[in-house]
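RETRY 2/3 - previous attempt timed out on the joint model. Re-submitting the same 482-residue input unchanged.
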Amino acid sequence: MVALKPFIRVQREDFDLQTEIAMLTEGRQDIGAVVTFTGLCRDEGGSLNALELEHYPGMAEAEMARIAELAIARFSLLGLSAVHRYGKIAPGENIVLVIAAASHRQAAFDGANFVMDFLKTAAPFWKKEHLANGSTGSWVAAKDADDAARDKWLKP
Amino acid sequence: MVALKPFIRVQREDFDLQTEIAMLTEGRQDIGAVVTFTGLCRDEGGSLNALELEHYPGMAEAEMARIAELAIARFSLLGLSAVHRYGKIAPGENIVLVIAAASHRQAAFDGANFVMDFLKTAAPFWKKEHLANGSTGSWVAAKDADDAARDKWLKP
Amino acid sequence: MKVKLVYFAWVRERIDKPEEEIDIPETVVTGRDLLNHLKTLGEEYEAALQYPEVIRLAINQEHVDHDEPIAGAREIGIFPPMTGG
Amino acid sequence: MKVKLVYFAWVRERIDKPEEEIDIPETVVTGRDLLNHLKTLGEEYEAALQYPEVIRLAINQEHVDHDEPIAGAREIGIFPPMTGG
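RETRY 2/3 succeeded.
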């Protein structure tokens, strides 16, 4: 059996969920559950004008693929896509999309959740804040909570 | 503060994810995470021709709204939609859609997962199998695993 | 007391009607009593309600336990465990 | 040994270049040695690598620990903890 290959993309432009889902499900009759996660830019109560997403070209795609393949094997997924944007992103805009397809619902939920937790802590992307007052804010700090969310998948 | 009202629909026709998500997120800048769950009809290895979905009109919508409101309160959701189809549905077609929007990712994942677990066990829908050999199969039996999935949310 | 009964899925198929209005004797107090009463109405009811412990009840479109009093109900739904989603 | 170094986020901003090719002395064996060596190259490196324990390293685009030997590396990425997603 040929192992399922995930769809991985790092791109400037936005994505369309219906199109991305169709890439996984079109013509198939064995998929019973599709879970999508979309991460969006928040305005932080009006203080944020934009986020600027920097990434390590090549390594970003490779890490996303590595994480996706772990999820496919662990949750017996029937399809997986991960798309991450870079560049300047305004509040309300999409940043990241993960889609997991499976026979049954819990595998699809777990697959998408797993990919997001590892993507946050291992895929080489960094966010810089552009503030509403015109100044360039600081680089977003990594959160301990994100490490904890990842580590829950590592328990025996 | 006015409590957030979920979008609830029971309908014959299919739904479009991008349109449904836009209903929750359009014009907002406080949503950081959107999780969608789509349940599809599987062909069960080729043995199934279609599922026929029956529902209790009125009560179906009321139960879905009740479950949705529990999820909104429990996970502080910023948006929630649940759409369930009825009638004859072929393998590969959509059956149900749940969308949960929140500030942060875990609340959106938990909200959608919670709604699906309760919807499976409490919303008045029933599935009948139409088999590929032309006969009408039996009504799908309720699964203990679905009760167990629901009960994990009831632990103290 | 007159009440509208609505049936779904294999309960509906076995009773062979989607709904009916029936007159309930005063000795019928709870949902459980109602199921037992219906089983006396004919073969088709007996086939539908053979295993009353798996049957679900709704009064005025809200889930209730079998020991719930049915007094004042306008509509009682009788159906198998749900399998939507 | 000659190696290409690539910097990201505030490491890139403080060193004030996205990448460079440098010549590494033979005494530099591990990633940790490399960070300590870079700190001797000037103020901007010292500012970027002031707290080496938070710095992440990648050899040939794969995450590695600080005690990983760098022998044979074509490209070493040096960057802060990731904040994507």
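DSSP finds four helices and eight strands in chain B. Closing ticket.
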